[in-house]
Amino acid sequence: MDHGGEVYRNAAFAAMEPDPVLTVSEWADAERMLSSRSSNEPGRWRTARTPYLREPMDALSATSRVRSVVFMKGAQIGATEMGNNWIGYSIAHDPCPMLAILPTVELAKRGSRQRLDPMIADSPALARKVSDKRSRDSGNTVLSKEFPGGILVLTGANSAVGLRSMPARKVFADELDAWPGDVDGEGDPELIAERAIRTAGGRAKILKVSTPTIAGRSRIEVAYDASDRRRFHVPCPECGGLQVLVWRNVRWDQGDPSSVVYACEHCGAAIEEFKKTEMLEAGEWIPEVPELSDVARGYHLSSLYSPVGWFSWKEAAAMFQAAAKNQDKLRVFVNTVLGETFAEKGEAPPWEQLYNRREEWRSGEVPSDRAVFLTMGVDVQHDYLQGEVVAWGREFETWSVDAPIFSGDTATDGPWDELERYLQRTFPREDGVELQILRAAIDSGDQTQEVYRRVRGMRRPDLVMAIKGDEGKPQLLSIPRAVDVTYAGRKVARGLQLWRVGTDLAKGQLYGWLRQEQPTDPDEDGWPTGWAHFPNDREQEWFQQLTAEQLVPRIVRGYRRYVWEKTRDRNEALDCRVYARAAAASIGIDRMTDDDWDQLESNLPAAGAPKPETPKRGRSSRERGTGKRLGYLDRRRRQRGR
Question: Each residue of 418-433: pLDDT tens digit?
Answer without folding.
Answer: 999 999 999 999 899 9
